[in-house]
Prior knowledge:
The N and C termini lie far apart (41 Å). The model has no long low-confidence stretch (mean pLDDT 94). The protein is built from 8 helices and 7 strands. The radius of gyration is 18 Å and the shape is globular. By secondary structure, it is α/β, with parallel strands linked by helices. The protein has 2 domains: 14-192 and 230-255, NAD(P)-binding Rossmann-like Domain (Rossmann fold), CATH 3.40.50.720; 193-228, no CATH class. The protein is 45% helix and 15% strand.
Amino acid sequence: MMSKENPLCLDGKVAVISGGASGIGFATGKLLAEYGAKVALLDVNKELGNKAAKEIENEGGTAIFITCDVTSNEDCKKAVEMVYEKFRRIDILFNNAGVTFRKTVVELEEREWDLVIDVGLKGTYLLSKYVIPIMEKGGGGSIVNTGSGWGLKGGDKAAAYCAVKGGIVNLTRAMAIDHGPQNIRVNSVNPGDTDTSMLRSEGEQLGFKSEIDKFLVDSAKGRPLERLGTPLDIANAVLFLCSDLASWITGTALVVDGGGIA
């Protein structure tokens, strides 16, 4: 009988995930661990981060949590050093941390603009800066950056978010060109509306605090698959991009949105 090894297997791999305490980051950490990766979850939320790592460990995976503010050069450098000291390699980096304010450029405060840009773009730059040399030393790796459907088209009352996600999509392409010779693949995963605490926060910002369920239903309308995404939907795409199945894929923007921008 013919058989084939599982090309999704990540045994022996080490993954670093920012924004790893909840939502898409946690779902991805859990899934990568299920496929054999050792996972380092980075986040500013200590309580949720420790809880997330413990849950992965309780289910038989290997996970650690490191408190890390991705806007801080010192935090990012220290976090990467801690992961390398613990596991002696890094094969996967999922730059996933992000925040948003549902406002126009007129409504945005400067500090809000700066925070969205710093968490999304600066955080991606800083973690990549310190992870890439380790990946190169280990023979290569895979980096996945979280963009958005709104990184490929515009959206209403989300000026800073659209700016940062558009930047991430093109930064991904530039990184793919620069680091392909080191056998490092760099792609972006671009979710549509996904049922996370961040999406619920957006609903509250837009005035739906007492009607969150209605906001979520409305968010799913108009897309061909007629439902919101789940964190696992996005995690599945990240798993694919990190696996051997995607060994000749780099510099691409994978849209995972139920057909929302089709």
